[in-house]
């Protein structure tokens, strides 16, 4: 993370937070967070419930003002946002196709093609309120993709999706990263799936506990302390094909 | 048909054409009670207008704006939920309005007239005003429609897409206030609120898109105006309540229509 995120010299990251702090009622929910996301990079934000993940995302999206530090966005940055929870009120009649062309006008054909990428091409004329959790997640992802984003922001995209669906979803996210050549900021508390498909992990508990490549973070004492040994052992199953490298350069600051 | 009937029908159509679509935006955002509050508190505006000797519409517009500010300020606290705040403003405004009305020196106020309006007494001036305001409201609505819809779906998502949600919210509130101010003298406080919220409930049954629903509310509202006026003419019932009763009947009929009969 931090400055090591920029692979090519002279290329600035899509988004960079420096010492970002967000407080509500005098309480620091996000505390001095440094974070940079490059084009083509998948950055995962993990942490327990209430650790400030969603607040950090909302700050990056410009939905909550920072109380300290700075957020630099590349000029003209297009963000495709998939929120954690979104329920369209039943009183509002809305088909999938209408929902997808709401803020950006998209031709019907382009829209159906994009839906087919996620295997839900037949849903275009269905009311959005009638979709299953997994179908709705895909529609939300399609909406974000149609914006031709430079940065995809996904807040708990695997919610309400079964394990098989989750594997497929993460495969899609990687494919999208390649196809759109965008950066991805992924929020999850679902450790193993995240670990298996991420370039960088940032472990958040209001402040950044540890950061680096998945296998590095998985063995970081701060991570083990936060998630417990059981979760760490489970992770080993998914990351065993990587060697357990311990590169101190990739570890961020620890607790304190 | 007599002149006054034509004026009543046209005024009713003009009001229904703007209350329905604005009402949709309130219903979708679960702000139906806000329309009610706006209308109830408008009585205070009427009373203040009469007291200060300014146009009643100016009084209503002023109290509506004040209401919007109070509501926005109350959003900063979390201990009292927003629907409770609306109830406070609604009943507080209504009570204050009645008190000020009865304190007016030398004026015998027709409270029933303000509550239910007197659509059969619409003057040529009233009619022109309603049609002009209707034109403004529908034009503004058409301009902000896509953004207002995005905000109705989800405010955060709209903001993330670059929609200036605060400005849209304020515009919708001001449109609602304008609708109330234009229609209150003619159709009354209770009728304005009913015409904003009830047609949406009937139109939802048949709508597949938000635009269908908005147009549906106009159809329902206009039909109710004609049914209400016809009933008033035939059985000498009060015109305003007859229109509201007609909408209620249309809502029931819409929801009794078998699902198979609706081409979905």
Any overview of this molecule?
The complex is a heterodimer of chains A (256) and B (264). By secondary structure, chain A is of the alpha/beta class. Chain A is built from eight helices and nine strands. Chain A has a domain at 85-147. In chain A, 34% of the residues lie in helices and 23% in strands. In chain A, strand 6 (151-155), helix 5 and strand 7 form a beta-alpha-beta unit. Chain B is mainly alpha-helical and 264 residues long. Chain B has one domain (3-263): ABC transporter involved in vitamin B12 uptake, BtuC (Orthogonal Bundle). Chain B contains eleven helices and no strands. Chain B has helices spanning 3-28, 32-52, 56-74, 82-103, 111-116, 124-153, 155-160, 165-187, 189-204, 210-235, 239-256. The longest helix of chain B has 30 residues, at 124-153. Chains A and B meet through loops of A and helix 6, helix 7 and helix 10 of B.
What is the alpha-carbon Rg of chain A in Å? 18 Å
> How many helical stretches of chain A?
8
Radius of gyration of chain B: 18 Å
Derived from helix and strand composition plus strand pairing, the structural class of chain B reads mainly alpha
Low-confidence stretches of chain A: 1-7, 236-256
Number of strands of chain B: 0
CATH class identity of chain B? Mainly Alpha
What fraction of residues of chain A sit in β-strands? Answer: 15-25%
């Amino acid at each position: 993370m931090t400055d090591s995120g920029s692979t090519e010299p002279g290329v600035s990251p899509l988004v960079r937070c420096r010492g970002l702090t967000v407080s509500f009622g005098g309480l620091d929910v996000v505390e001095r967070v440094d974070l940079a996301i490059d084009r083509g990079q998948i950055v995962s934000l993990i942490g327990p419930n209430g650790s400030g993940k969603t607040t950090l995302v909302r700050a990056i999206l410009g939905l909550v003002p920072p109380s300290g530090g700075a957020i630099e966005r590349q000029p003209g940055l297009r963000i495709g946002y998939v929120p954690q929870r979104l329920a369209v009120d039943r009183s509002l009649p809305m088909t999938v196709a209408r929902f997808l062309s709401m803020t950006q006008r998209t031709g019907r054909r382009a829209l159906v093609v994009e839906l087919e990428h996620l295997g839900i091409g037949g849903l275009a004329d269905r009311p959005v309120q009638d979709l299953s959790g997994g179908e709705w997640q895909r529609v939300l992802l399609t909406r974000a993709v149609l914006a031709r984003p430079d940065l995809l922001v996904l807040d708990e995209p695997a919610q309400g999706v079964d394990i098989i669906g989750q594997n497929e979803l993460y495969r899609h996210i990687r494919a999208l990263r390649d196809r759109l050549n965008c950066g991805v900021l992924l929020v999850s508390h679902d450790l193993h799936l995240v670990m298996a498909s991420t370039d960088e992990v940032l472990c958040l508990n209001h402040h950044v506990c540890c950061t680096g490549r998945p296998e590095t973070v998985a063995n970081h004492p701060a991570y083990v302390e936060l998630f417990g040994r059981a979760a760490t052992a489970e992770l080993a199953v998914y990351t065993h094909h990587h060697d357990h490298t311990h590169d101190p350069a990739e570890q961020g600051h620890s607790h304190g | 048909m007599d002149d006054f009937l034509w004026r009543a029908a046209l005024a009713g159509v003009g009001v229904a054409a703007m209350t329905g679509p604005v009402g949709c935006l309130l219903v979708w955002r679960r702000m139906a009670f806000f329309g009610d509050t706006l209308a109830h508190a408008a009585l205070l505006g009427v009373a203040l207008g009469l007291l200060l000797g300014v146009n009643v519409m100016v009084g209503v517009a002023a109290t509506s704006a004040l209401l919007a500010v109070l509501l926005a300020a109350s959003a900063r606290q979390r201990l009292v939920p927003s629907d409770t705040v609306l109830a406070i403003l609604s009943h507080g405004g209504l009570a204050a309005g009645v008190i000020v009305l009865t304190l007016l020196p030398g004026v015998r106020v027709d409270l029933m007239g303000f509550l239910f309006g007197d659509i059969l007494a619409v003057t040529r001036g009233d009619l022109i005003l309603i049609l002009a305001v209707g034109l403004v409201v529908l034009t503004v609505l058409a301009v902000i429609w896509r953004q207002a819809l995005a905000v109705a779906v989800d405010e955060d998502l709209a903001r993330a897409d670059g929609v200036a949600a605060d400005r849209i919210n304020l515009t919708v509130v001001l449109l609602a206030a304008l609708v109330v101010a234009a229609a209150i003298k003619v159709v009354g406080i209770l009728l304005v609120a009913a015409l904003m919220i009830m047609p949406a409930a009937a139109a939802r049954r048949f709508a597949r898109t938000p635009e269908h629903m908005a147009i549906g509310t106009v159809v329902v509202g206009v039909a109710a105006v004609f049914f209400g006026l016809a009933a008033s003419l035939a059985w000498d019932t009060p015109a305003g309540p007859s229109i509201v009763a007609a909408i209620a009947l249309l809502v029931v009929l819409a929801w009794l229509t078998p699902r198979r009969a609706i081409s979905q």
